């Protein structure tokens, strides 16, 4: 009896992990997301970010400095769409919104980012 309960708990955990993996691998479709791609710089002096497409997924890399040496330590997160809303999960949810008219990317919390001009 005890062994059956343990197997049921294990099965529930595996099903939960599979559901999380499927959610993380969900495609973000549409031309709107493609418009987010490129380098962005914070209007508030926060770390730069890069949005790019990798296969069917979109990712956000944050170029933060950390530690005593202030060494650049980029961290990459999957851009997820849920019920029409975009977010990244850094351990907590950060919502992402794009204002096409102003070409401004907003991370909530995190502030506004403007498209960084690429040097030729």
From TrEMBL:
<protein>
    <submittedName>
        <fullName>DUF3876 domain-containing protein</fullName>
    </submittedName>
</protein>
<dbReference type="InterPro" id="IPR024452">
    <property type="entry name" value="DUF3876"/>
</dbReference>
<keyword id="KW-0732">Signal</keyword>
<feature type="signal peptide">
    <location>
        <begin position="1"/>
        <end position="26"/>
    </location>
</feature>
<dbReference type="Pfam" id="PF12992">
    <property type="entry name" value="DUF3876"/>
</dbReference>
